[in-house]
Write a structure and sequence with these properties.
The chain is an alpha/beta fold. The strands form six sheets. An eight-stranded mixed sheet has the order 2-20-12-15-11-3-6-7, with helices on both faces. A three-stranded antiparallel sheet has the order 1-13-14, with no helix packed on it. Helix 8 links the parallel strand 6 and strand 7. The longest helix has 16 residues.
């Protein structure tokens, strides 16, 4: 096995790892050899070649996208959509996926982000985790629809064990544990500016999760999609773990999508300031997509319609709805990788840890919304931030636990 691993490293121009291998003790060497045998170096090399050649998306045309504002729906429209969506929910044909692969590092929290504790004693009478806040949606659905909604939680390799244990230790937040299923997103090595993999302080090749767009492939690989089909699920809501005001079991959203005859849908929040640094939904080259803040010109960013509203206003909040047939199709779609330049510590050839002062590696991620270009139409429901979007991304300032808890508390006080 060691000879095979060395041959793989030589063939893929990763000889620097051989020198590190030779200096390791037996246990660490065996662990690293086993990992090397499973790495897709062909993919790593392709990503480096793309990086070296300078990939740039060619955007020839950008057009606004149609959307519906939830708070402007007529009563008869709401009732019709609610009736359609409620029928889906009552018959347990809706499932929810929470993407929870991240750690709480930026929050100063050691552990999965979903285990971060929030001071919501005024609401719950105690501190509660993000996971427990999200669990309230399923408790509410049980009360309203008399159904145990299936909850699928995508973790990372690094946090699955802690996440599962947290649910066990908290009695699955009084939900039926048979309706909660965990699965793991894939990892991909990070590489330096010369296309070399690096060794982390665990003496293994440093990897990172391959982004939220990696969800499609693992739904098939880990038989999650099969499990859904076996349970008769027809619609799947997908969102991140860090929005504590998320409304995943939304009869109006489901009903609107079905009424429109669409296979995919997204909830958005309307930008009020053109300079908000968020990606917005649009049509790029005639296809459904999200354009990032730094990709759109100042002219288009500030463009307004006849009512004085921004033409490109619908911010991506990663709240998506899919027909099960759409997910089936997307499991075989190969999404492109986006790259990010990061500072990551590594072990050098003398087995000493190096802490870089400048970005030294490239991390590669797939974006979940890149898959939308495979469909002709999408239902977009624009919702109020105060009602459905309270993200926790930063330790302080905007989108922090403080701002999210305030939004959450204000919403409950108005609706209880």
């Amino acid at each position: 096995m060691e000879n095979k691993a060395i041959s793989i490293l030589k063939y893929n121009n990763q000889e620097h790892i051989i020198e590190i291998l030779e200096k390791m003790n037996l246990e660490r060497r065996e662990n690293l050899i086993n990992q090397i045998l499973g790495v897709n170096f062909k993919e790593v090399n392709n990503l480096y070649n793309e990086l070296k050649n300078g990939y740039k998306e060619n955007i020839n045309t950008i057009e606004p996208i149609k959307y519906v504002e939830k708070n402007k729906l007529l009563l008869e429209e709401k009732n019709e959509y609610d009736s359609i969506g409620s029928d889906v929910i009552k018959n347990n044909k809706l499932a929810v996926i929470t993407m929870a692969g991240g750690q709480g590092t930026r929050l100063g929290h050691k552990g999965p982000k979903g285990t971060y504790m929030l001071n919501l004693e005024d609401i719950f009478g105690k501190e509660v985790s993000i996971f427990e806040v999200l669990a309230q949606n399923f408790i509410k659905a049980k009360s309203e629809y008399n159904v145990d909604i299936n909850w699928y939680i995508m973790t990372s390799n690094g946090n699955k064990r802690e996440t599962v244990k947290f649910f066990e230790d908290n009695n699955y937040f009084n939900l039926n544990k048979n309706n909660i299923k965990f699965f793991v997103q894939n990892d991909i090595p990070v590489i330096d500016e010369n296309g070399k993999v690096i060794i982390g302080k665990d003496y293994l090749i440093k990897t990172a999760s391959n982004g939220n767009g990696g969800i499609y492939e693992v739904l098939k690989e880990q038989n999650i999609l099969k499990d859904m089909k076996d349970k008769g699920i027809e619609w799947v809501f997908v969102s991140g773990v860090d929005n504590i005001l998320v409304n995943p079991i939304d009869s109006i959203f489901v009903g609107l999508t079905i009424k429109n005859g669409d296979m995919i849908a997204a909830k958005t929040v309307k930008k009020v300031d053109a300079n908000e640094k968020t990606g917005v939904y649009c049509k790029k080259n005639g296809k459904i997509g999200v354009i990032e803040y730094n990709e759109i010109s100042d002219e288009l960013r500030n463009a307004k319609d006849e009512n004085g509203d921004l033409l490109y206003s619908q911010s991506n909040i990663i709240s998506h709805l899919y027909n099960i047939k759409a997910l089936d199709l997307l499991t075989d779609v190969d999404l492109r990788y986006h790259r990010a330049h990061k500072k990551v510590p590594y072990i050098d050839n003398n087995l000493q840890e190096v802490i870089p002062t400048e970005p030294n590696i490239y991390k590669f991620e797939k974006f979940i919304f890149d898959a939308f270009e495979n469909f002709d139409n999408i239902s977009i429901l624009s919702v109020n931030k105060e009602e459905e979007f309270a993200p926790i991304k930063n330790a302080e300032g905007n989108d922090s636990p403080e701002t999210a808890m305030k939004l959450y508390t204000n919403f409950l006080n108005k609706h209880i």
